Structures are given as C-alpha cells and as structure tokens.
C-alpha cells in the first residue's frame, strides 16, 4: 500500500484533565484555600473558568492563587505558594486547615519526593 492511499483516523474526543468529581471537590475547597493563604500572609485571588465536559455540558472551576506569602516550611517570602496535603491526595488527603500547609514550589517538590528542576538542570 502506498502512502497516497491511506485511511485517516477519526479524531478522538479530548479527554478531560479533571473528572467531574475532582472539579466539585476543588470548588468545595475554595474557602479553605483562601484561609490557608491568609494564614501564610499571602494575597488570595479566586479565578473562575468554564470547563466543557465530554458530554457537552459546561461547569465552572474555581481555583485560588496565593501570591506574596511566607512558605510554612522554609519561612521565606515567595511570590507563589501551593497547598500541600499530608497525607497526599493520592492517599485520601484533603485540603483542610489542620492537614495542609502553604509551601513554595521548592519545598512542595521536596515534600512530594520528586526531583526539582530549574531550566532543565537539577537544583542543588
């Protein structure tokens, strides 16, 4: 069979990066994430975007960005903080004031046990 005679594959539907259950879970955590950001001395911003599910319906996703706060691990001022759950979400952890801390990217990667990368080179 030559390259001129081929059958095009049908395009697949794009997969959602987040399931409906996960979107609802994240939306329910907005108030706690704002409180965590305030505890770290940061400024919280709630961002909303519409996500189209595979069945055609749209749902709002509310995310909280924490800027200009103090990392609860290294105690350094940082522009961007992330919540860290202990135990992690993969083991049933939830975002809560008791089980979560706001960490900078470097400390969060260290806590997760993943290598840290900076511009393609490992951080020292």
Summarize it.
The chain is α+β, with helices and mostly antiparallel strands and 124 residues long. The protein is 22% helix and 32% strand.
Radius of gyration over C-alpha positions, nearest whole angstrom: 19 Å
Biggest beta-sheet profile: 4 strands, antiparallel
SSE order? HHEEEEHEE
Count of β-strands: 6
Strand order across the biggest sheet?
1-2-3-4
Low-confidence regions: 115-124
Please work out how many helical segments DSSP would assign: 3
Number of domains: 1
Into which percent range does the helicity of residues fall?
A: 10-25%
Class inferred from helices and paired strands: alpha+beta
The end-to-end distance, rounded to whole angstroms, is 54 Å
What would the principal axes of the Cα set say about the shape?
Answer: elongated
Describe the protein in words.
The protein is of the alpha+beta class and 124 residues long. The protein has one domain. 22% of the residues lie in helices and 32% in strands. The strands form two sheets. Strands 1-2-3-4 form a four-stranded antiparallel β-sheet. Strand 2 and strand 3 form a beta hairpin. The C terminus is likely disordered.
Please give a handful of descriptors for the protein shown.
4-stranded antiparallel sheet, 6 strands, elongated, two-stranded antiparallel ribbon, alpha+beta, 22% helix, 124 residues, 3 helices
Layout of SSEs?
Layout: H1 20-28, H2 30-39, E1 43-52, E2 58-70, E3 77-85, E4 100-103, H3 105-112, E5 117-118, E6 121-122
Antiparallel strand pairs: 1-2, 2-3, 3-4, 5-6
